[in-house]
Amino acid sequence: MQDAKLLIVDDDPDVLLAARLLLKRHAGSVDIEKNPEKLPFLLNNNRYDAIVLDMNFERDVSSGREGFAWLERILDIDPQARVVLFTAYGDVEMAVRAMKAGAADFVLKPWQNDKFVETVRGAVVGRTRLDETGTTKRGNSSQSANHSITLSLIGSAMRPILDTVARVAPTDANVLILGENGTGKDLVARAIHEQSNRRDKPFVSVDVGALTESLFESELFGHVKGAFTDARDDRAGRFEEANGGTIFLDEIGNLTLAQQARLLTVLQQRQVTRVGSNKARTIDVRLICATNADLAERVATLRFRQDLLYRINTIELALPPLRQRPDDLKPLAEHFLKKYAKQYNRPVTGLSPALLTEMKQYNWPGNVRELQHAVERAVILAAGTVLEPGDFVFRKTDSPTNGTSPVQQTMQLEDMERVAIQQAMQKHKGSITDVARELGLSRQALYRRLEKYGL
Ligand SMILES: Nc1ncnc2c1ncn2[C@@H]1O[C@H](COP(=O)(O)OP(=O)(O)OP(=O)(O)O)[C@@H](O)[C@H]1O
């Protein structure tokens, strides 16, 4: 593995240092990262022959849940990734589960040097074989591989959207993607990038709604050493990371007015200044934003700046909620069924007509993400080879079209949402990852709701 490029992700700096020292003697290069949130960025910009990933990122937690969630995310981005999991607890059952979920192998901490190197070597060899026999792989500059995300967007409702994407992508026009949570906004943003002339440059995605007031500026625009207590080094912000490529600002509707003003200045001047510095740096980025909020209403109620809206919405793309595209339910569900039957090695082959009927009657508040998780659960738990209504958990919600006023509907939906979150928090003993998964929300979206409802 002399030429291999490796990545180690662990929140313990001592582990990172020791593992890097050891593997550096056997590999071409070894990147280390403390924050797993950086994984999507790293994977979108590098091709790693193997990734060593910690199972537990929260101190005093040994469930491995974080590791599983990140493993899944890695394989979503790069299905051929070879991931070796670190576990400190010698839990063989967990390691076996991890391998079933797609990990290449695992290493127990504290590790034995020879064994660790051999395990990583095995993962690298596996990757080389996959690449040799492989189907599409990222980093391939052929036209078809470049359009892999576009091709992964399923459903007839996506056709007109993809037509617009094809026309808009090669221009540098700013795009605003509107749609409820889980409707595919992130995928569409990536499809625009991969069809654009910037496709070989970075695609940087930032959930700006999840950034606290104090983090906002340094995360987006960077900081210099000593700018604030934790600023131990100079650091580029996400705009600089995206230079030459595309920056995707998700949940833009949640920015405070002060944040909106700072963002607008950067967009107007096309320059960023790191916190604590007075040197402005010119940036060249294509801007894509997304929100599930009604921005026109926010402008009318003075919560969103009109000048910022005009700057970001040169082209608007609205993604319909899943309940408005019943024809897409079957192809989407079949797509996820195939994916998870293969991933979990389960003999599930189809959906019963009765299940399809129930799926069409349900209103899918979590949209495609909820459908994806529902199918995943059903594939794992189903007794037969065809999924039946009993294999699915439909969350109990009233149809939003039941004759009540929009305000009452909002109240009712908010009440239901709060109760659903409370129940899921109790059921999963407060595990954010599990609750987010059950409810079909991103972790950030869940954090925001917990804050909103004071839970
Ligand atoms: N048309 C589609 N075809 C295949 N998969 C889809 C489609 N739309 C969404 N998905 C899948 O559903 C999940 C949610 O999609 P995505 O993250 O793009 O939604 P989002 O609108 O950005 O959500 P959020 O607002 O919560 O950030 C992802 O796993 C994505 O791959």
TrEMBL record:
A Pfam family of this chain: Sigma54_activat
A GO term for molecular function: ATP binding
Domain Response regulatory: 5-124
Signal peptide start and end residues: none
Matches recorded under Gene3D superfamilies: 1.10.8.60, 3.40.50.2300, Homeodomain-like, P-loop containing nucleotide triphosphate hydrolases
Residues with 4-aspartylphosphate modification: D54
Entry keyword tRNA-binding: no
Cross-referenced InterPro entries: AAA+_ATPase, AAA_lid_NorR, CheY-like_superfamily, Homeodomain-like_sf, HTH_Fis, P-loop_NTPase, Sig_transdc_resp-reg_receiver, Sigma_54_int
GO biological process terms on file: phosphorelay signal transduction system; regulation of DNA-templated transcription
Keyword entries, A-Z: ATP-binding, DNA-binding, Nucleotide-binding, Phosphoprotein, Transcription, Transcription regulation
Residue span(s) of domain Sigma-54 factor interaction: 151-380
Protein name according to UniProt: AAA family ATPase
Organism: Spirosoma montaniterrae
